[in-house]
Design a protein that fits this description.
Elements lengths: L1 H25 L1 E7 L12 E4 L5 E3 L5 E7 L3 E5 L6 E4 L7
Antiparallel strand pairs: 1-4, 2-3, 2-5, 5-6
């Protein structure tokens, strides 16, 4: 009986440890958008990055971007000759 209880505890621990990466994945979101200039034209080549990390991308020819970040991240937009902009991401638990 003791042996069966020990195996049950070990199995529960293994299942718990294997499910932890799923929790990490569920806390990320995909942010999509378009970067436009004052005249409303899409801006190609704008650097879009998560503040404090090396996670980033650049906008396509129409100014579109897509980046996967944690739901509490801040995104930074930089482009030569323009003022840097930062935006806080509103995840599922933020209004």
């Amino acid at each position: 009986m003791k042996k069966a209880n020990h195996y049950c505890r070990m199995l529960s621990l293994v299942i718990l440890l294997l499910s932890m990466p799923l929790w990490a994945v569920s806390q990320t979101i995909t942010v999509k958008g378009v970067v436009k200039d004052l005249s409303g034209e899409g801006m190609p080549g704008v650097n879009v990055s998560q503040v404090g990390t090396t996670n980033g991308t650049i906008t396509d020819l129409s100014g579109n971007y897509q980046i996967i970040v944690p739901s509490n991240a801040t995104i930074k937009f930089t482009f030569v000759g323009y003022t840097e902009q930062t935006v806080s991401v509103g995840g599922p638990d933020k209004p």
